[in-house]
Structure formats: structure tokens, C-alpha cells
From TrEMBL:
This is Carbon starvation protein A. InterPro entries: CstA (IPR051605), CstA_N (IPR003706). Its main location: membrane. Residues 48-604 form the CstA N-terminal domain. It is found in: Cell membrane. One of its GO terms (biological process) is cellular response to starvation. GO terms for cellular component: plasma membrane. Residues 713-742 are annotated as: Disordered. The lineage of its organism: Bacteria, Bacillati, Actinomycetota, Actinomycetes, Jiangellales.
Amino acid sequence: MVDTVRTEPAPSRGRPPLRSIVVWTLVAVVGAVSWGVVALVRGEEISALWLLAAALGSYAIAYRFYARFIVRRVLKVDDTRATPAETLRNDTDYQPTDRRVLFGHHFAAIAGAGPLVGPVLAAQMGYLPGTLWIVVGVIFAGAVQDMVVLFFSMRRNGKSLGQMAREEIGVVGGVAALIGVFTIMIILLAVLALVVVNALADSAWGTFSIAMTIPIALFMGFYLRTLRPGQVIETSLIGVALLLLAIVGGGWVQDSSWADAFTLSPEALVVALVVYGFVASVLPVWMLLAPRDYLSTFMKIGTIVLLAVGLLLARPTLQNEAITEFASTGDGPVFAGSLFPFVFITIACGALSGFHALIASGTTPKLIEKESQVRMIGYGGMLMESFVAISALIAASVIDPGLYYAMNAPAGFLGDSLESASEAVAGLGFAISPDQLAAAAASVEESTLVARTGGAPTLAVGMSQIFTDGFGVGAQAFWYHFAIMFEALFILTTVDAGTRVGRFMLQDTLGNVWKPMRDVSWKPGLWLTSAVVVAAWGYFLWAGVTDPLGGINQLFPLFGIANQLLAAIALTVVTTILIKTGRLKWAWVTGIPLLWDAAVTLTASWQKVFSDDPGLGFFAQRERFSEALADGEVLPPARSLDDMEQVVTNSTVDGILAAFFALLVVIIIADAARVCVRALRDPSKATSTEAPYVESTLVAPSGLIPTRRERELMAAASRPGGDGGGGRHARPGADGDGGSLR
């Protein structure tokens, strides 16, 4: 059964205006030349601006042409059709939301640790592999997944990814998807929250500034809803001013008598995060979640734009190699494994991320006003995150390689002194003296930068160097701590949105057994499922904080693989829907990314489970540490026999979960293939779970800048006596263009 599509015929089109042809030709030429320099120049340092130009040119062309093609031809968006935000409005989860606010919420929710940390770690392979995957991957895989999942969830009243899999694939694959998606999400949320805790622990400045975003967001929510409805720009200006004041105030608090009140231990931060996650999940979305994410987006996008300006002013050269020897040997000190598949696992959220599919089938489809807005919010939001990833890769590649490896290699490899760290880095082929290591730490007012693993400190050093050289104002220490706070804020917004999405998923799943649980407006179900979700990720978070060896070592190796396996599930679901709804000729749009992602993730899972290299395989590591433990020997990174036992436990859990997740994905793909073959053989038996068509009465632009036609319709609807029903004609030109990049 083909999905119901009601569209007006597109007007006949003549030749594009000469100005448009010239502009897009120039964009293509600049992008092509930049790619040529990035890919071909060897043996000399090149400017980081070539990476920036190659990425931006590719993003612009992809949004203008490829995303528009998918919206018009594959999805066939229909702005005469009411979205669930309009038909199911309850002012708690379903709420028509201005596209600018929703873009902010969606971007803030999807942009977490991945685009910041992943590219920094992947710089071990060189700047070229990461750049290619970040740009090409987002254009043809990541942004496509986000937009298509958002569209199909919106057409199904905002159902979660797991529930869509259950209804579209069937019992076997659907149940596997429900279990896999929810379990993977708990792991992802725990890792994201752990990064936040590590960034904010014992930091009065960061904790105060981020805590202040909560009352600011509450004020914005009530201001926009009751005091000045519809005044988005006015509310935004007030919110940004208060946010800047909170950032500056953090510095004052850090040097005042209030510092102790905001200097929290890791354990205290866990409790605060769990409480906040629960409250943010149960409050109406307009009150806290949407305005806070919108506010955070100003900080996120503003800082990245500031970084781009800093790059233009500083014009740094890339110190990293295009392709390092670790790409082929697979024995790098930052992470083990060869270029394929592990660079595609390490760089997750900047190119393709399964976590995004949870947001695109969670909060966002319940808030979007018009179907045509999926292009701006789904595809455009992911392009913005990819730009964050490119910026992070550049920041990691402009610092001295010796410092990069001194920061990102494990403590067991570097030793306990600056001298031993210098010698270890020299063994990798890079030179940095103990005095240089001490000077680097002093420049950012840190006691040491040695073995500051995880990627976030390295990114902060790179950003602070670019800001200092580019703007020439402020000490590098100020910019370093500003970047640390930025990273914490960047990640925290994914925790609250992710908790809400986890609640939706759990309600959908339990609703298969007891229907009242599926009603997102039923308060007891809302509170119960929210408590279960925060308790689940809170448990793993507490374990990671109280025992870092058993926390980050247990969870982080699974983060990349689990995230990309989740993307495989999402791409499987939407490809199945395309085939079942009579769009076989367009199934390649999501089918090709699915095949690539499945090959990458299943290969990585196989190696992590079955490799006999203790540095790569979980069970090989378990065997090595078990044998040493039996002999009473302590191996790095363990420092005691208790730590040795913990490593054995961690390796066992990692191996079992990696194998379990991979098995679930194989089951889902196999069952989906069966459903697709059956639908192709007998299309009459193919069923669709799409919600019935309801005519829209809303008027809203499809893109950032309204078209002339959209402005006329909005003006007519706002006049006294207007019918307010212009939304059924408020089409994006007639093709979902939105006018912002014509």
C-alpha cells in the first residue's frame, strides 16, 4: 500500500536564473579545488582553510540539490497534511514549534560527544581519512538517515524507532529492534553523561554556567508562551544576553566565596544529573527542554562559528600527516585497529549516528509544524553537526603531533613522569621535550596534560590555540577553560533529550502489553517510565564515576560500535518502509548507506569479539589478564590485583554485549529482507502503519527564510477575519525548497 500523498502539481520550470547558475558554479569550483589540495598535496604543510572550504562547499551543494531531490522525489512531502504536533497537540510532548526553535532543539539534542571527541581520536589515522568520511558520510548517509527517519516517524504520529520496527518488520525483527535500540540507548546515555561529569567535576565555573541555563530556559519558555507569544527573536536576544552573563558570571563565581557551593564531586554531579534528567523528561516540552536546547544551540553554533572565524584569521597549517602509519598497522597508541573499519566507528556522530535516529523518532517529530521542514531540521541539522566534527578534526590536527600523542596515549604507555612521556612519544617517531610538555600545561593553567585521554582536553587545547592566535585577545588559559565548558554544555543537552526519547521508547514497548502505557499524556506511565530510564543509565554512570577503571573502560569501547549498529537498525527500518510503500526505485537512497554501515559495524564487532590480539579483542584481553591474575601479576593499566579483576570483568561484559548487539542487528536485517521480498512478490499484502490524512490549518515557512508566497500567506492569516487555514497552501514553492538557499 503506497503512503497517502496529496500534493499540488509543481509549476513548470524554465531555465534557472543566471545568478543562480554563476553562484553554484563558483561554489562547485571552490569545493573541487579545495578537495584537490586536501587529497593530492603531500610532503608539505597545507593550510587548514582548505579542509574548511572543501567541507562547506560540499555541504552547500548537498543541501541545495541532493536533500531537495529526496524531499521532492523520494518522500514527496505534503504541507497540506497536518503533522502530529497539530493533530495530537497536548502541550506536553506534542506542540507545534517554530522551526527556528525546533532546529535549535534538534541540533542540541543530536550534537553530543561524538562530533567533538571522535574526530580528535581519529586524527591518529591522519586528517585525510577522517575528512573524507565526515563529509561524504554525512551527505549520503548521516543526514539522509536523520531526515528520512524524521519524516516516517512524523507520518506515524511520532512513533519511536523501535516501535516502527515492531510494526513494519514484524514480531521477530521488531522485538529484536525494541530490545537492541533501548539497550544501546542506555549505554550511549551513560557514556555521554560520564563525559559531562568528567568535564564538570571540581569546576565551579563550568558547573555554575551550565546550571544557570536551566532557570534561563524556564524563563524563556514562559516568556514565549505567556508574556510575549510568538516573539522568537525577542526571546532569543534576551536568552543569549543572559547566557553570556552566566558564562562571565562563572568566572566571577570561581574566584568568589560561592566557589565551594558549585565545586561538586563526581558523585554529587551524578545525583544532580539523574534528578535533572527525570525532571526534564516529565515537564512539558515548551517549559524546559525546547527553550534550553534552543538556548544551548546559540552557544554551540556560536562557538563553532567563532572557531571558523578564528581559523580564517589565524590561518594555521596542519601539523598532522594526511595518512599516518597507524592507519595501516592498526597498532596506534590512541586506539587499536586498522583504518577499516575503526576510523568509521571512532568518528560516529559527525558522519552517521544511530543516536540521531532516536531523536528524529522521539521529540522532534512531535514538534514539527510542516512536513517540508524535515529538510531544514533533519538534513540541515546533521550538516551542522558534521561541520562541528570537521572543526574538531582541524583543531586536533593543528597542534604539535608530539603533544597530541602525549595527551591521548594511555598512562600505562607514557609512564609517570614528563621524561618517560617524552621518551614514549619519541618511540612513536615524534619529538617533544619534558620542558615543552610542562610549558604546554602551564599555558592553559593545568598541572599536566600528559595522558589526558578521551579527546575533550585535546580539542580544548587546539581550540584555545586557534582562538589565541586568531583574535589576539585573552590568555590561552581562558580560551582553554571556555572550550572545556563549551564541550560540557554541548554534551549535556543530549542527555536530557535522550532521556525523554528513552521514555517514549519504553512507553511504546510497554504499550504493546498494556495499552494505557502508550498514552504519553497519562501521568503515572510518564513518571514511571522516566524513572526507569534515568535509573538505568544512572546505574552505569554511578559505576563509571565511583570506579573509573570499571566505567569508562567498560562503556566507551562499546559506544562507537553500538552507535553505528543503531544506525544500521534505523536504515533497515526506513529502507523497509520505502519498499513496502511502493518506492523500490528509491530504496537505494537509504539502502546503500545501510550496506556500508552493516559491513563496517559487523566487521568491527567480529574483530572486537574474536581477534586474538589482546589490544583489540575483548576476549583476548580477558584471557591475557586472567592468566596474569592467576600468576599474581599486575598489568597496565591496572595498578592492583583488584583492578586486574575489574579488567577481566569489563572485557567479558564488553565481549558479550558486542556480540549480542551484532546478533540483534543480523536478526533485524534478515527479518526485514524477508518482509521486503514478500512485499515485492505480492504488493497487495503490504500494509502501511501511516496515520490517516488530516488537513492542516497551520501556516508556517518550510525553511529559515520564508519565500514570498509564504510571507503572503502568513500575512493573510494574521489579518483580522483571516481564516487561518492558509497552511494547506503554504507550500515551499511547490517543492520544499524553503527559499533560503535558492
